Amino acid sequence: MNSIGATITETGKEILSLWIQTGIYFLTACLVYGFQVNHSMHVRAELASHSYTEIRERIARKLAGE
């Protein structure tokens, strides 16, 4: 705005588009974060239902390519 000498009212469309972009980014970030939290809760619950030895054996099998 300083370089072209425009006022806020003259750049209203650009400012509005930036706020819309901010809102879309915010909603996307909330959805992704919610998915990650939900997924980690499921993984944690699954791991809690198995013994430590069983978990280590499953990891070893996956690393070995079985």
Please work out how many helical segments DSSP would assign.
Answer: 2
Q: Major beta sheet, specifics?
A: none
Instruction: Please tell me how large the radius of gyration is.
Output: 24 Å
What share of the residues does DSSP label as strand, in percent? under 5%
Low-confidence stretches: none
Oligomer: single chain
Label the structural class: mainly alpha
Write up this protein.
The protein is mostly helical. The chain has one domain. The chain is built from two helices and no strands. The longest helix has 37 residues, at 12-48.
Walk me through the topology.
Layout: H1 12-48, H2 52-64
Q: What is this entry, summarized?
A:
With 66 residues, the chain is mostly helical. 76% of the residues lie in helices and 0% in strands.
Q: Which features would summarize this protein structure in a list?
A:
single chain, 66 residues, mainly alpha, 2 helices
